[in-house]
Design a protein that fits this description.
Elements: E1 2-5, H1 11-19, E2 24-27, H2 36-40, E3 44-47, H3 54-57, E4 65-68, H4 78-83, E5 87-89, H5 96-111, H6 114-122, E6 139-143, H7 147-158, E7 162-167, E8 178-181, E9 194-197, H8 211-216, E10 222-225, H9 234-243, E11 248-251, E12 271-273, H10 284-300
Parallel strand pairs: 1-2, 1-3, 3-4, 4-5, 6-7, 6-9, 7-8, 9-10, 10-11, 11-12
Helix pairs in contact: 5-7
Length: 317
């Protein structure tokens, strides 16, 4: 079996070779470096690059599995992959710890008024009139109840926060006090002090949030997006912030990336912008490799039906 990595895995390369001496591994730095004759014989591809389009995958005549070393798969040609009966796994859960930390970094930066303290420091002021708030007894609402919200909910409960979740059908989830279906979200959006989007990009979630959603929210709400930028039209988000429909936003993901330097989002004072970095961590490759090792063992033992993090091509997650 031929395993072709289209990215350097550093010390994980040696780990894989030692763990599976009967597999043939080839490692490249980038898809553009991959030799055609190697791709033609590849059974498994490892990557997270946008270059994995239909034209590229057409070269991989024997391909059975794509091990995607990222969570979001919205740039992959899912219909094509499904039609070829190629299995696809992603890195779901790998980013839960660091994204949960970022969510609370956004929240505490806001609620503890760190910006005001930093501004005072820059102006050599000792401003004792700054009045930070507390998150004790406040309500956090998650759009999505997967592994990232579940990890974040654990932390929220430690702060004695109320946790509300929104998912496809309103099924209950551990550490969530209330869960509602996505169709009924407007019944509860106004209860939240913090609304956090963690939804993936699918046909159902594309521009899911409308102006009515932001109007429905508590006007003092802090909206956080660490899911996908396409969940809301950028102009609707800008209008919500400009008109005071919502008080503040922390945004890590955008409809178009990199964010255009001329975007009006940069002009707003009531927003924190980070450049799609909440999922980054020095241990990500190691954690993704753990998933790959589990799935390679399944392949070696002919239990392909039990692949970890296998994507359903119909739902897109």
């Amino acid at each position: 079996m031929n395993v072709v990595s289209l990215m350097h895995l550093k010390d994980q390369e040696e780990r894989l070779v030692k763990a599976f001496p009967n597999l043939n591994f080839t490692f490249y730095k980038h898809p553009n470096e991959a030799r055609l004759e190697v791709l033609e014989e590849a059974d498994i591809l490892i990557s997270y690059h946008d270059e994995l389009n239909e034209t590229f995958l057409d070269k991989c005549h024997k391909l059975k599995l794509i091990a995607w070393f990222a969570t979001g798969i919205n740039n992959l040609p899912l219909e094509y992959i499904g039609n070829r009966n190629i299995k696809l796994t992603n890195a779901k859960g790998v980013h839960a710890t660091q994204i949960a930390e970022y969510i609370f970094a956004y929240i505490l930066y806001d609620i503890k008024q760190f910006k005001e303290s930093i501004d005072a420091q820059d102006n050599r002021l000792f401003d004792t009139k700054i009045k930070p708030d507390t998150i004790y007894n406040k309500t956090i609402l998650f759009l999505g109840t997967g592994m990232i919200p579940q990890r974040t909910a654990e932390i929220a409960k430690a702060f004695n926060m109320k946790v509300i979740g929104i998912n496809t059908n309103g099924h209950s989830v551990k550490n969530f006090d209330e869960v509602y279906s996505i169709d009924n979200r407007r019944e509860v959006l106004n209860k939240a002090d913090f609304v956090v989007n963690v939804l993936p990009e699918t046909e159902e979630t594309f521009h899911l949030l409308k102006q009515e959603d932001f109007i429905t929210m508590n006007k003092d709400v802090h909206f956080i997006n660490v899911g996908r930028g396409t969940v809301v039209d950028e102009e609707i988000l800008i209008e919500a912030l400009e008109t005071g429909e919502i008080r503040y936003a922390s945004i890590d993901v955008f409809e178009e990336e990199p964010l255009n330097r001329n975007s009006r989002l940069f002009d707003l004072k009531n927003i924190t912008i980070t450049p799609h970095i909440t999922g980054k961590d020095m241990h990500n490759t190691e954690r993704c490799t753990e998933i790959l090792i589990t799935n390679l063992n399944s392949y070696m033992n002919n239990v392909e039906s039990k692949l970890l993090n296998e994507i359903n091509m119909q739902t897109g997650y």
